[in-house]
Amino acid sequence: MIDYTGLNCPVCGKPFARNDDIVVCPECGAPYHRECYAKEGKCVFSDKHGTNAAWAPPKQEAQKEPVNRAECKTKRCPRCGNMNSQSAMFCDRCGQSLTINQQDIPGFQQNQGNPQNGFPPYGAPFQQGQPVPFLFDPMGGVNPNDQIDDVPAGDISKLVQNNTPYYLPVFMNLKRFGKNRFNFSAFLFSGGWMLYRKQYKIGSIITAVMTALYLVSTYVSIHFATPLLQTMFQKQGISLDSGNITYAQMMQVLALVSQQPDLQVFLFCLPTIIGAIQIVIMLIVGFNGNKWYLKHCVGKVKQIRQDSSDATRTAIQYQEQGGVNAALAICLLICYMIVMYLPQIL
């Protein structure tokens, strides 16, 4: 049933009130006050009946579908400025966690609700209520929809989380052009870096190997290599306390060492051999760290997407399985310091 309230009567031009006595033309449906229709005696549009010019009810504005507030993009990423849905736990573009309290972001209260001077444009983080230029792309110039081993780069960024501007371009260059980049963090810290990046299996193996090599080298140096070297210096009448050992004297001592039994010579050289092996392992990890990490990330993303049945569960898995393990890194650093200085204390 059509509600004629507010429409104008074609005869008197006055709008219909809710309680007015209204009659309609049986041909075209035009509404009239009963008195107006009786006065005219016919529909004023009778000569236009059957044509497109006949009266027609006004088009009703389509009823708007209810808005799903969870899908409204009202949550701004504090890192890159991208707008995300209210239910998002990670930024769709850079992978930044959105579970932090936005009220704690400097300038949020001043900016909220002011489209002109409020939210800064994309790429401008909050800083005391004033937008400042964002100096780098948190995705490193990689499109979130670009595929890396059939996985969107945006999903990989949600797993990497920390230092995505470095890793995403490296991953893309690896897959597109086969170009790798030497990872100095992986080179310097080897297994520790891999454990920090939650590559627990291979990281544990490399850490165990490097630790075992260091302990063997330290033990051999303290109990065999250093005493043997001191004995050879004494035979040559050279005082180690003087600190003025010439190159010729050092060559004489090494010549004496080479005349010792093969086992003692081997033990004397063993710390140097172990040091070389450690350098080789560090170089291998440095050259292959990015490749191994890419394989780890792609595998984790595929596993999470397969095992998680909804977006919320997927976001939680990204948060738990991605990022870095800072606590483990601190523990490894403490253990390293203990192992380094314990022989000197004992």
UniProtKB/TrEMBL annotation:
Zinc-ribbon domain sequence ranges: 77-98
Origin: domain of life: Bacteria
Regions crossing the membrane: 202-222, 265-285, 323-342
Pfam families hit by this protein: DUF2628, Prok-RING_1, Zn_Ribbon_1
Keywords: Membrane, Transmembrane, Transmembrane helix
Protein name: DUF2628 domain-containing protein
Highest classification ranks of the organism: Bacteria, Bacillati, Bacillota, Clostridia, Eubacteriales
